[in-house]
UniProtKB/TrEMBL annotation:
Organism: Paenibacillus tritici
Organism ancestry: Bacteria, Bacillati, Bacillota, Bacilli, Bacillales
Domain named Phosphodiester glycosidase: residues: 305-435
Protein's name according to its UniProt entry: Phosphodiester glycosidase family protein
Keyword entries, A-Z: Glycosidase, Hydrolase
Source taxon at top rank: Bacteria
């Protein structure tokens, strides 16, 4: 979630700067450390523009429950919460993680983490910053201009060293901790002065700032007629980019001017320990009139509270980081100090706060993912007050919200929860890290580290890890622990466990007088919701080889690679083998056009359908004979969609290019590449997956496709939830669970910029598409299937197929309103076969591209590897197995009609 306050392009403007008299200045040497004078305590008002601050209303019916806590290090505790709230009459729930830091503990501290090597202009993930700096936990930090060089909007101080000064914006709060371990949340202004050797002076506007639009001044350009200092923390050559001004720059080393570049930037990075004074307009005139190479230049500046005017010597600051609106004051929800319109909605949230006695700092992150509904800002206020925050402020949130922590006894941090984009950690300009300086203590405890979920046949290594009296990791590997496991689901030898059968065991390790145990669950077939083969179709020809990795998805949502030894393969229609994760076709049975490779895991099955044609090239845009058009849903959105020559790696070919400009639009905005007017382009047969090459633009927008199916229903296909790449990339999309009825038509490919968190994503960009293909096994696997009509009457032992009557040995019956038939006769009439397993009482029905697994007396069934539920189950009657007719026929692509008067069932294909 970014606050975009960037410099505007346009004509340079000038304004006179009159320095206020009778100010108290603190001299600052810029040879190394920069000193400032910040302040304590105030409330602010406003957001981008004038107007009074909106009043934050406490979220009604909000509650938070602590789920548990675990020590990260001495003085830092990870606490997990579940929250519940009511939105528009409906209950929403979610999760939040809070790191509580005890400032009374001398070994723990909080500090600012920056980009790579602690510099600006080198954005890095929160986890990357924690790893680089040795933090035991951390969250993302300040807002920043996503199109800028990578500098925070607010102020930043670490160990008394000023990295960046606050921007001239209203209501932007900062969090600080003094070196005597007192937390402060306040709003600051910056004032500074340059003094030439001849005594002339000129105001200093800031340190290490990107271009932005100031508030409350006479200029809309931050760098117009202004002087800024850039230290060696600023690593970019541009100081800054998009400033709308032409610079005059001065290099100062050891307080002595060594270079002056008039009306142009110095073509160097800032040398270590030096700084570059960047000026424009009136400030540049000051340089030309008063600064000379070889002479001294001194500077002085400070931060001040907007309300109390109190000053705070930065040498006493342990850290400071900028943020956004104040959220909590005096233990209650505060009025927002800025408008929150652009950071509204229910999002992942990051915040900082402290307790009334100043002892605890609360580092807060609320989740927005499949497990959590996110929070509004008013709900965040309610959450913060409920956990004891006395004063708190908002940090950057949304897709940037990321928390990492070091689990007990581990040596590295891990992602505390999935971000809004899954496992992805967005690169940000800074963060807040938690650090420990505790010495190594005595061993306090041990824990077992390793997977808690296994599949039958899977081997997993477990290690014993220890933590000391300060809860920091300690090596206990040399202790040669004794391992054991209860029950018979797992065997263990020297820390290597082998899953034998479904069940849960206690895995235990003992070392001397210390011991630890953990629960390990071995999943059986009944614990799975999905069994996924790496491919759903393959070519049916001797010598063909295809990779078939198989993964299992548990009912809890965990995805695990299935060990080869845990799978049993069966081949129908061909002779084959599976080894080293590859399926090889050795010979095809005579007359067979469709084959099946069935993988079974503890009774749960999935199938790879083999046919003469596995993948169909659908559109490569080389010889298109139908039109494309750009369309949109929102006024103000413009763009183009056309087949154009490819460039770079696509040189010599043609691609479909979609360019868009949404800067003048509002709300949820779409940019469509429309195929063939309203008709679209036909997808002629059942498609189980699609593939498309996409040139991404790193816009973080959403990429989708729209299809109209055979019933006239519209289906939306997610190609990429986030366009988070540049250049070409192949996307593979599973369509087997899409519910699309084929034949269908692809109507359009499009980019979506959703309204929630819109400030995070680019509103302009270009994507391109090439080499679209669909896996349509039905083109061959169903090509030879019989077509026609079959009719059966309840109680009658005859079946009429395409007008010809033939006997059947078991009559259809009606039981509890459902019709049951022996599936053999349906398959004889319409193609396919059934495999019966007497031991497990399972029936696998294979027809075309469908593999249907049914179990007697169970309503659950498995279709192409996915567990689903029906209203009725197969039954055994008079030693014969009967299946629900409507369930089976509809899942196999057949239609059923019921005639009440004659009690006749008619099946058509």
């Amino acid at each position: 979630m970014k606050e975009l306050v960037m410099g505007k392009k346009g004509k340079e403007q000038t304004r006179g700067n009159q320095w206020p008299p009778a100010k108290k200045w603190i001299a600052a040497s810029l040879a190394g450390v920069i000193w400032i004078m910040p302040v304590v305590g105030s409330e602010g008002a406003g957001w981008l523009g004038a107007g009074s601050a909106p009043v934050a209303q406490a979220a009604s019916s909000f509650s938070a429950t602590k789920l548990g806590e675990e020590v990260i290090t001495s003085g830092a505790m990870m606490m997990k919460y579940k929250f519940k709230t009511v939105r528009s009459g409906k209950t929403a729930t979610g999760l939040a993680s809070v790191i509580r830091v005890d400032l009374n503990n001398p070994y723990v501290s909080v500090d600012v983490m920056s980009g790579k090597a602690g510099s600006l202009n080198t954005k890095q993930s929160t986890g990357g910053m924690a790893k680089e700096t040795g933090a035991v936990a951390g969250v993302n930090g300040d807002y920043f201009n996503t199109s800028g060089e990578g500098a925070p909007i607010g102020g930043q101080v670490s160990g008394g060293v000023v990295v960046s000064t606050p921007s001239q914006l209203n209501g932007m709060y900062a969090f600080a901790v003094t070196k005597d371990r007192k937390p402060v949340i306040d709003e600051y202004t910056f004032e500074g002065m340059l003094t030439a050797e001849d005594g002339s002076q000129f105001p200093l506007s800031g340190v290490n700032k990107g271009a932005y639009n100031p508030e409350g001044g006479s200029s809309t350009y931050s760098h117009a007629n202004a002087a800024y200092i850039y230290t060696d923390a600023w690593t970019a050559l541009e100081r800054p980019k998009n400033s709308s001004t032409t610079p005059t720059e001065v290099l100062v080393e050891n307080d002595v001017i060594t270079q002056i570049s008039l009306d142009s930037a110095l073509p160097v990075k800032v040398p270590k320990g030096a700084y570059i004074l960047r000026t424009h307009g009136l400030a540049a005139q000051f340089v030309k009139a008063h600064l000379v190479v070889g002479q001294k230049l001194s500077s002085a500046y400070m931060l001040k509270s907007k309300t109390t005017q109190q000053e705070l010597d930065p040498s006493t600051l342990q850290m400071m980081i900028g943020g956004h609106t104040i959220l909590v004051n005096n233990g209650k929800a505060s009025s927002f100090s800025r408008s929150t319109n652009s950071i509204g909605g229910y999002r992942a949230r990051t915040a900082l706060g402290y307790s009334q006695d100043g002892r605890y700092v609360y580092v807060i992150a609320a989740e927005k993912n499949s497990n959590s509904a996110g929070l509004s800002l008013t709900e965040l206020q309610s959450f913060m007050t409920s956990i004891g925050v006395w004063k708190g402020m908002n940090l950057d949130g949304g897709g940037s919200t990321t928390m990492v922590d070091r689990p007990l006894a581990e040596t590295a941090t891990t992602l505390t929860f999935n971000t809004e984009y899954g496992k992805e950690q967005r690169s940000v300009v800074n963060g807040v890290g938690v650090y420990t300086s505790a010495p190594q203590g005595e061993v306090k405890g041990i824990k077992i580290s390793g997977s808690t979920v296994l599949l039958i046949g899977q081997k997993a290594s477990y290690s014993l890890k220890g933590y000391d009296t300060y809860y920091n990791p300690v090596d206990v590997a040399a202790s040669n622990p004794v391992w054991s496991a209860s029950g018979g689901s797992v065997t263990v030898n020297a820390g290597e466990a082998t899953a034998v059968k479904p069940g849960t065991v206690n895995l235990k390790a003992a070392s001397g007088t210390a011991s630890a145990e953990t629960k390990v669950t071995v999943l059986g077939g009944d614990d799975l919701s999905n069994l996924v083969a790496g491919v759903t179709s393959a070519p049916l020809q001797a010598g063909a080889s295809v990779s078939v990795p198989v993964s299992a998805v548990s009912k809890s949502g965990a995805t695990i690679a299935v060990p080869a030894g845990a799978l049993k393969w069966e081949f129908i229609g061909f002779t084959g083998s599976v080894g080293d994760g590859k399926l090889k076709v050795e010979a095809v049975d005579p007359g067979v056009t469709t084959g099946y490779a069935i993988a079974r895991y503890d009774g749960f099955s999935t199938a790879v359908v083999l046919s003469a044609t596995a993948a169909t090239a659908w559109e490569d845009f080389e010889n298109t004979n139908y039109p494309f058009a750009f369309t949109t849903n929102a006024a103000g959105v413009t763009g183009s969609a056309a087949v154009v020559p490819g460039s770079a790696e696509r040189a010599g070919s043609k691609v479909l290019s979609l360019s868009y400009d949404m800067t003048a639009g509002t709300g949820k905005m779409y940019a469509y590449a429309q195929f063939n007017g309203t008709a679209g382009k036909s997808i002629p047969a059942t498609a189980t997956s699609m593939s498309v090459d996409v040139m991404g633009d790193m816009s973080l927008n959403w990429l989708r496709a729209e299809v109209t199916d055979a019933n006239g229903a519209t289906a939306y296909i997610d190609l990429a939830k986030v366009i988070d790449w540049n250049g070409w990339k192949t996307l593979n999309i599973d369509l087997s669970g899409s519910g699309i009825k084929f034949p269908a038509s692809l109507k359009r490919l499009y980019v979506v910029n959703v309204e929630e968190g819109q400030d995070e994503r680019a509103k302009t960009g270009t994507v391109a598409f090439d080499n679209m293909s669909f896996v349509m096994p039905s083109l061959s696997s169903e090509a030879g299937l019989p077509k026609g009509t079959a009719a059966m009457s309840i109680g009658g032992k005859a079946m009429t197929v395409n007008g010809t009557k033939q006997p059947i040995d078991v009559a259809p019956i009606v039981k509890d309103g459902s019709t049951y038939v022996p599936i053999k006769y349906v398959l004889d009439a319409f193609g396919g076969n059934a495999v019966w397993d007497a031991k497990t009482k399972k029936i696998m029905v294979l027809r075309g591209a469908k593999a249907l697994d049914l179990t007697v007396n169970k309503k659950e069934f498995i279709l192409n590897g996915k567990r689903q539920s029906a209203e009725v189950a197969p039954i055994i009657l008079n030693a014969r197995t009967l299946v629900p007719l409507r369930l089976v026929t509809e899942q196999l692509g057949l239609t059923v009609k019921w005639e009440q008067i004659t009690k006749t069932v008619t099946i058509e294909s």
